[in-house]
Design brief:
Length: 363
């Protein structure tokens, strides 16, 4: 039997979000209903609100979530009612060409719930990244549920569902940072800060944090960065090179996703180094550089999709590292808010006042 719950939606482009009643159907084959305990306010949700993803309004926002499985549909074997899970938007299929060649983190046919959640008048909702977790409960594909240690607080664990995983994975999975290597991270939003934490976790000898906001540079030092560079200075590349023994960093992560920051990342790496693009560019952005420059520098230029993560592998491992005190995920939770405070959280995000606001729900 379907149930009605409170949720936050975006009804039209740039309109303030609304707290409304929505209808959650019983889970069908391959689906699960999850009682949401916490959900981070991610910049991707703001992109949905602004119409920057697509125009399939109304959107059910929220996707960085942790909660407890309430019910599962026919054929579900990976989770059961009562399991504590982090939600992910890469529910691997196991059958596409990426999965079949042993690279499921690139799965090209990830799953979402088949049924639609709706407004009480029957209007179908588009869940953000196939999740829609600014809600008391949500309907997802069962493969979007990853069981983790229940000792991890939901407000912390849920953040692995998107932004933190993207940044950590950019360093650990895509950049493959090794012990003793040097790393520079350009852009210190939630993703960039997580890339700093990932580089520290990997054992990088030098971690250079680059941003224009002094507050963020200070925070990066707290997370383990060894050096900072103010990005308004026109000598950013030179400073990174000088910090890294005059040659440049072994790995440079662009967590902004603009042509100018990507150019800085390209120029600031050492010969045969790796450039990782994890910041998401807009469709109109173009990067132009002489082809000989790409050839002569060697190394690799990589884009990082969701931190090239495999949720079933990475989420439990990162939660374990957090519980061991080796990964400071608590540092990313700036404030805990109620469902009705999401619009205000977007304003704080736009001003750079928070790393993450996290919606907490009762129960």
């Amino acid at each position: 039997m379907s149930q009605t719950v409170k949720a936050v939606i975006s009804r039209s482009k740039d309109a303030d979000v609304e707290l409304v009643d929505i209808v959650i159907p019983d889970p069908g084959p391959g689906e699960a209903v999850v009682k949401v305990q916490a959900c981070g306010v991610c910049h991707t949700d703001l992109h949905y609100k602004q119409g920057g993803i697509n125009d399939e309004f109304p959107f059910l926002l929220g996707h960085e979530a942790a909660g407890v499985v309430e019910a599962v549909g026919e054929g579900v074997t990976n989770v059961k009612p009562g399991d504590y899970v982090v939600l992910n938007w890469r529910a691997v299929c196991g059958q596409c060409r990426a999965c079949l060649k042993g690279e499921p983190w690139y799965c090209f046919d990830t799953a979402n719930a088949t049924q639609k959640m709706t407004l009480t008048d029957g209007t179908e909702l588009t869940p953000a990244l196939g999740i829609g977790a600014f809600a008391e409960k949500t309907l997802v594909a069962a493969g979007q549920c990853t069981i983790v240690d229940e000792k991890a607080e939901p407000a912390v664990a849920g953040l692995l569902g998107c932004g933190l995983m993207a940044g950590l994975g950019a360093a650990l999975n895509t950049g493959q940072v090794k012990r003793g290597e040097s790393v520079a991270v350009i852009g210190l939003g939630g993703v960039g800060m997580a890339a700093v934490a990932g580089a520290v976790l990997a054992g990088a000898s030098k971690v250079v944090a680059v941003d224009r906001d002094e507050r963020k540079l200070t925070k990066a030092l707290e997370l383990g960065a060894t050096h900072t560079v103010h990005s308004t200075d026109d000598t950013v590349v030179k400073q990174i090179q000088e910090i890294c023994d005059g040659f440049g960093a072994d790995v440079v992560v662009d967590a902004v996703g603009r042509a100018e920051t990507f150019q800085q990342a390209f120029e600031a790496r050492d010969l045969a180094g790796r450039v990782v693009l994890v910041g998401v560019p807009t469709p109109d952005m173009v990067w132009e550089t002489p082809l000989i420059e790409i050839f002569s520098r060697g190394g690799a230029i990589k884009s990082s999709w969701y931190g090239d993560c495999l949720p079933s592998r990475d989420f439990p491992m990162l939660v374990d590292l957090y519980l061991q005190g080796r990964l400071p995920l608590d540092a990313f939770v700036t404030e805990k808010i109620a469902l009705g405070d999401v619009e205000a959280a977007f304003d704080k995000m736009a001003k750079g006042d928070v790393l993450r606001s996290v919606v907490e729900l009762e129960g």
